[in-house]
Prior knowledge:
Conserved Hypothetical Protein Mth637, Chain: A; mainly beta
Amino acid sequence: MAEQRYDRIPRTQGSGLEQVAGPRACGGRRYQMAVLTLQIAVKPRARVSELAQAADGTWTAKLKAPPIDGKANEELVALVAERFRCRRADVTIKAGASGRTKLVRIDYHRRP
């Protein structure tokens, strides 16, 4: 069986949202996939863990965990997954794993 390709729907300017439509392998059902990429400024060793969006649209994450052995990155992934109501496996850090500014990608898999 040939590998299936997915058609990309053009994303709107500045939204950071890109939808990818195509069949998914799950009992012959069709699923839609949406991709969201966020740039997040991270502040480790905070009193409270929170993820907030400023009025200008930038995201800031305050994390309790220290930036040692990837603990802050793990907490960031869990915090983003909780905020956007998705699985932790759907959240990945695409860039900035060792820096304070990170690019985080969220893959949503939904039934239409």
